[in-house]
Amino acid sequence: MSAVVCTIIMCIAILLTVIFIIAMFGGAKKYNDVVEALDDKMKYSYLAGLNLLDIVHFNFGSTYCRKMIKNCRVVYGEKYAEFHFRINMAKKVTYGLLVLIFGLTVSVLLQEALVILLTVGAAAGIVYYFETVIMDEIHKREDDIITTFPDMLSKLALLVNAGMIVKEAWEKVANTGEGTIYEEMRATVTEMNNGVSEFDAIMNFSNRCNVDKISKFSSTMVQNLSKGNKELAEFLKQFSNEAWVEKKQYTRQKGEAAAGKLLIPIVLMFLGILLMVCVPIFLGISF
C-alpha cells in the first residue's frame, strides 16, 4: 500500500479508537449499573456498545428487534428478555469495533490490503456469531426439555395413579430433578401457591417451555383435569409411553446428525492425505 493510503487507514483507526474510548467513558455514566449485574470479564467494554446504540438512536422497536426479544423471552423470561437483547447488541458493536481497530492497525504495520478484507470478514463473523448465540441457547434449552420430559412424565403418572392430587404430585416431581423442565415446574408450583389456578399455571408452564410436545401435553392435561384422577392417570400413562418412544427416535436422530458432522473432518483429512500423495506424483518428485 502507498504511504497516503496507509496514512488514511491509520487516521480511520485512530478515529475509531477515540470514538470507542469516548463512548466507553460516556456509557459509564449511564450504564455502569446495568453491566455490573453481568458475570462477564469483558462487561465494562460493553459500555461503549450500549452508549453508541443510544447515540445513533437505534430502533429497538423494529420488526427484527421484536422478533429477537421474543426469542430472548424463551431463554431469559419476560422480565429480562429486552435486557439480554440489548447486551447482545452491545456485544456486536463493541467486539466489531475492536476488531476493526485492531485489523486496520495491523494492515498499516504490515502494509497489506488483504488484512483489511480479513478484518471486515472477521467483524462480520463476530456479528453473525452473536446473532446465533440466542438461537443456540434456545436449541440447547429445547433439547434439555425434550430429553428430560419422559422421565418427568413417568414420575407424574406414577404419583397420580397412586391417588395423589395433581397439585401435590406436580410439586413433588418438581423437586426430584434438575434441568429446565424441573425449574419451570417449580415456577408453576410458586404460581399455584400464589393463587393462580391449576389450569392457568399449567398453561403458563407450557408457554414458558415453548416446545410443541409440552404444549400438547399441557392442553390435553388441562382438558383431563376436570374428568377426575382415573382418566387423568390413564392419559398420563399413555402419554408417558409415547414420550419414551419419541425420545428414542429423537436420540437416534441426534446420533445420526452427530455422525454426519464427524464425516466432515474425516473427509478433509482424506483429501489432505490424497493431496500429499498425488501432488508429488504429478510434479515428478521422488522420495
Based on CA inertia axes, which overall geometry fits? Answer: flat
Describe the largest sheet: none
Low-confidence stretches: none
The average pLDDT value, as a whole number, equals: 82
One letter per element, helices H and strands E, the order comes to HHHHHHHHH
**Terminal CA distance:** 41 Å
Q: Would you tell me the structural class of the helices and strands?
A: mainly alpha
Number of strands: 0
Portion in beta strands: under 5%
Oligomer category: single chain
Radius of gyration: 27 Å
- In DSSP terms (H or I, runs of 4 or more residues), the helix count works out at 9
Share of helical residues: over 70%
Write the layout of secondary structure elements.
Blueprint: H1 3-36, H2 46-55, H3 63-110, H4 113-161, H5 166-174, H6 180-193, H7 198-209, H8 212-225, H9 229-283
Helix pairs in contact: 1-2, 1-3, 2-3, 3-4, 4-5, 4-9, 5-6, 6-7, 7-8, 8-9
Quick take:
With about 290 residues, this protein is mainly alpha-helical. About 85% of the residues lie in helices and about 0% in strands. Helix 2 (about 45-55) packs across helix 3 (about 65-110), helix 4 (about 115-160) crosses helix 5 (about 165-175) and helix 5 (about 165-175) packs across helix 6 (about 180-195).
Task: Provide an overview of this structure.
The structure is a single chain. With 287 residues, the protein is mainly α. 85% of the residues lie in helices and 0% in strands. It has helices spanning 3-36, 46-55, 63-110, 113-161, 166-174, 180-193, 198-209, 212-225, 229-283. The longest helix has 55 residues, at 229-283.
